[in-house]
């Protein structure tokens, strides 16, 4: 009895710890953002009218009636925001597709390596993480600029007669996206492919399936959880990506991260910036909920 | 072709002919110049300790390993280098290798879909297979939702669905518990007889091999030690290794004398002589082994009583019982002979109340007939 009491308390604590973390570092800040999103902008410090301030006492909660959805209406009415969202989703979709097309063969090859070489391949995938992300993107600027390595190489090989403009194009941005996110695509794919029973492919061959057919009928369907995990791990951060489009893409069309940055730092319109963030979050939570559902279903069938 | 028929005019050509097959892994010969013929409709068991090469041999028949030398003829065609998906051979895998993303019915239909079979025919075949292995009502389940015994049935149905010329079974029952294994063995035999298919089963379980198989090939270190019916294997082992591998055995070593009548006396180093039936082949070696199965060694307090028995029971060895193990159906005794050797004897417990049970420390006479002894030269 007493032993039970002793052990259940820390166990209970451990069980609620993640929720505590989520409340403290996600829900509470999200509440702040939501509150600002529902407020009016002002030339002040901070640059919005606080409709209520709990620090001044609970009676200020009456001000909550002043909260308005004006900022969200603005997001819908102004094409700038709608286009930003669409561009972000489009860029994320195209990048994810390219990442999958490049990452899948790499992960597949890694999973088929002899055991002792797998760790080496894994290291090679992870090693770029040891350098700061920002530095690596700046390095790409160096490579892609007018007199950069890429143009020098192409000129040297006489493939082009004058330097090509790479920087500030979508090509450069996609290059940066694929380069930066490739490990996030490869690792979950590798994990699913590596744990697959090679006996299943033998069974498929035994039952008359050629290698290509075995891949499509057995390997690929069984790797779908990995595909989904990889795509989500890339798609979600790419939608909100700021650094790569800002440094490598042109300024003609903005991704939502850039628009948000402009609202926040240049326009000093915190309420609109916050509303943008809230909508972005909702856009991204939706696919995550779907993913969670799918995984739960998988777990249930596994039982 | 005419010549071949001339040599064996009455014998039908075998379904499967394995000819001097060699498979090396590094320096190790997993299968070493192995030759074997298997007839159509036969239930053949490959029996051997782990690492003897039996699974490698099976995998070469399925096409998952390529032989380094030798040929495999199926229906007269050399298939040694044919890809696995182009062979009319199917395999039931030890871990079943069911496709986890497909239902029971789709698992069974997997091989049929690769055969360009009309849809109605395929459906009928799947339904037939489901009935055959008694999986009715489980068609839409995924492998994860099945018990071990049910998975085993799906794997069997899947491998049978294409009606292969040859079905390979790699330790098919190893994952089942003993009771289920025994009943499944009987079902497997019935199935094989009903379908008139040729089965090759790989197993390390000699009881299983003896139960299901028409013939057993005992493998050791990449070679076949003996190919024989279960009865021959047990009662007339070809070598000391086979005698010791299959069942329990007592082995005496000694020098053979000259045959007298149809009897041969083998004198042991320090325990007198054993009289055995004269072997069919003349003995060429200076020392031989005499093998006698424990259940053929009888114990008594004063030796065999009746004169009729006496005439045959020429081998009498005296000693002291050192160990008694009651195993239900039989009781197993260890007797320390006066020569110092330990002899094992097992006797059936034919009556519920045993009157002449022996106890440790008791002095007994162990006796057996010359005809129950097997002389082995190697």
Task: Characterize the structure shown.
The complex is a heterodimer of chains A (303) and B (378). With 303 residues, chain A is mainly alpha-helical. In chain A, 73% of the residues lie in helices and 1% in strands. Chain A is built from twelve helices and two strands. In chain A, strand 1 and strand 2 form a beta hairpin. In chain A, helix 7 (170-194) packs across helix 9. Chain A is globular and about 75 Å long. The model of chain A has no long low-confidence stretch (mean pLDDT 88). With 378 residues, chain B is of the alpha+beta class. Chain B folds into two domains: 2-240, 3-Layer(aba) Sandwich (Rossmann fold); 248-376, RNA polymerase II/Efflux pump adaptor protein, barrel-sandwich hybrid domain (OB fold (Dihydrolipoamide Acetyltransferase, E2P)), CATH 2.40.50. The A-B interface holds A 197, 199-200, 202-210, 213, 217-218, 221-222, 301-303 and B 62-64, 83-86, 89-91, 93, 95, 97-101, 110-111, 114-115, 142, 144-145, 158-159, 162.
Observed structural traits:
heterodimer; A: 303 residues; mainly alpha; MetI-like fold; two-stranded antiparallel ribbon; 73% helix; B: 378 residues; alpha+beta; Rossmann fold; OB fold (Dihydrolipoamide Acetyltransferase, E2P); 2 domains; six-stranded mixed beta sheet; five-stranded antiparallel beta sheet; 20 strands; 25% helix; globular
